[in-house]
Amino acid sequence: xxxxxxxxxxxxxxxxxxxxxxxxxxxxxxxxxxxxxxxxxxxxxxxxxxxxxxxxxxxxxxxxxxxxxxxxxxxxxxxxxxxxxxxxxxxxxxxxxxxxxxxxxxxxxxxxxxxxxxxxxxxxxxxxxxxxxxxxxxxxxxxxxxxxxxxxxxxxxxxxxxxxxxxxxxxxxxxxxxxxxxxxxxxxxxxxxxxxxxxxxxxxxxxxxxxxxxxxxxxxxxxxxxxxxxxxxxxxxxxxxxxxxxxxxxxxxxxxxxxxxxxxxxxxxxxxxxxxxxxxxxxxxxxxxxxxxxxxxxxxxxxxxxxxxxxxxxxxxxxxxxxxxxxxxxxxxxxxxxxxxxxxxxxxxxxxxxxxxxxxxxxxxxxxxxxxxxxxxxxxxxxx
Length: 384
Description:
Blueprint: H1 10-15, H2 58-71, E1 76-80, H3 83-92, E2 99-103, H4 108-116, E3 124-128, H5 133-139, E4 145-151, H6 163-172, E5 176-180, E6 198-201, E7 216-220, H7 225-237, H8 243-254, H9 256-275, E8 280-284, H10 294-300, E9 308-313, H11 317-326, E10 331-332, E11 342-345, H12 346-350, E12 360-364, H13 370-382
Parallel strand pairs: 2-3, 2-4, 4-5, 5-6, 10-11
Antiparallel strand pairs: 1-7, 6-7, 8-9, 9-12, 11-12
Helix pairs in contact: 2-8, 11-13
């Protein structure tokens, strides 16, 4: 008598990209489908399920399947040409006059888009410290607020918002909750299981992990009218990810679990050591017990506290910029989540409207040797 099929872990399923084997060649790596058009059946139907390359693609579907599995997304996942394309599709699914609540501290490009572009389309936006649930509740307008947008941990201060608490507030007001989980990843946090309606990833970052793909992803809790509208927006706006990029993303996700485990171990080690560094005034990292959001992070993040941290340089802005100029192993570059460690003076990037302190350096921790990473920072900081 045969036993029931085993329920494989997410780690195993991601490592094998859901175990797909090409039916023609028996290859264990799915092929890249680049076709833009597909043959009709003699009865004028499309029994293959594919009509044209703008709204759909087989390679994209493969990668979406992995993300949907990782996020436990009942509605599935949708891949976009960038994280911004994914995020703005969610806001585009709203109606003119709808009210949005978003974090004061969030990805700067999206914050700027909400401030400058969303309002031109008739959306109303208020920014609030979403890690303060009382402040969030006060900002939500029952019957008028249609979307609460969170980013947790938030870039680049790494504040933590209670997703379950925010979901309760949003739903009580008749709003949906969307969570930018880019800095966390579904290995660490699954917002849908905590009550979110939509989760967004700049898949360029942790999901891909190799700094060679621009991509965005959405995963939905329920296949409702709102989700269907997002699907139509992607198709109508031509915002689907290309097949080669989808293939690279899927390849990156195969090593997601082992990459992020190594990166989180390095980040935790660096955060502890930098806390005692004489040139560092403050370390911003949810894994530190003194972090204001540590208790919430410990409850909703599993296996670690992410791959990101920031430091505030005691001697101020000029010293921070000098330190970033003196590193060797760390690379001065924008982005995060890759296997290479990156350092950046964020205020210079974000401009005068940034909530980022001018003495802050953002650190995206890779898979290099932790002692090497610390030694490189140490010598750069000690030169003053």
